[in-house]
Design goal:
This protein has helices at 2-20, 23-26, 49-65, 79-91, 104-116, 141-156, 172-185, 203-216, 230-238, 256-263, 275-290, 312-315; strands at residues 38-42, 68-71, 96-99, 121-124, 135-138, 160-166, 191-198, 222-225, 248-252, 269-272, 299-301, 305-308. With 316 residues, the protein is of the alpha/beta class. A 6-stranded parallel sheet has the order 2-1-3-4-5-11, with helices on both faces. Strands 7-6-8-9-10-12 form a 6-stranded mixed sheet, with helices on both faces. Strand 3 (96-99), helix 5 (104-116) and strand 4 (121-124) form a beta-alpha-beta unit. Helix 6 crosses helix 7.
Length: 316
Amino acid sequence: MKKKWFRILSSVCFLIFLAACKKTDIGLFSAEFPGMTRISFIPPIENHPFWLAAREGMAKECHRLGFNLDYVGPDIVNQDRQIELIEIAIASQVDGIVTSAVDPGRFDAVIRSSVRNGIPIVLIGSDSPGSLRTVFVGIDNVDAGRKAGNLMIESSGGKALIGVVTGYSRQLSLNQRIQGFTEAISEYPEMRIVTVEESGFDQINAGKRTKEILLEHPEVNAFLGVSTNDIEGIARIISEKSNSSSFSLIGFDDVDFTIESIKNGLVYGTIVQTPGQLGILSTEALAAVFSGGEVPESFIKTETRLITLENVKDLY
């Protein structure tokens, strides 16, 4: 009886929520193809190479399985808007949701709401381990950070005063990368992180933070860009300096600028993920739940690759 009243109350709440939504929002997750299983992919930012690549993998798998895929995200990284879009997807009664928890604690409530309403939710890229999410699909970020640290050791010869630019100081995945990086360089007494600054996932802001670091800490001779756009912002500023070749630059992911900067020697190396695989595996996980099965693991690990001048031309 209690469960029945809970379902009724939930339905009423959904109707109230939908009534409060903007008209342009209400149709975002509409049932375009009645009878089809509907998956909503809500990334932290919609028009970004990493998340677009994840969508491509997801779209291929959805096509194979006969699922309908919605792809909607904020124009810029905006957690309030991202959470609002997840709430709209829940209210629209989609069958499954894929998203990424920029700030883990802030997403726990909406994840709980999704699960309580019978909608499994898969996190990719960045996890919220204490939440009710079905599974996390992504890389081992601590290990990826260690790999970045090893690249920095190679590039600098074990001597570096490092400025770190990260997308968001409270994102678990990015902090794990910094943790792994710190562990890797800790064995080298002439290597240390001088400062960590935040870019807000914006390449222009990453460049501004780089200028500020060089102004306040002129001894810095190496940089780590922790999120996708950071290394581009860093590298553009360093490229303007007459002694640019004396800097060691390490980044993450394989946007075009980063790859070209490795080819011309400005960036030493990058740690590359497989976002398309994130899309495929997250869709497979939801499909397992839809069919009444179980996802065997709470963490589905995807691989990373190290890209340097030695192998960049073979791969790109």
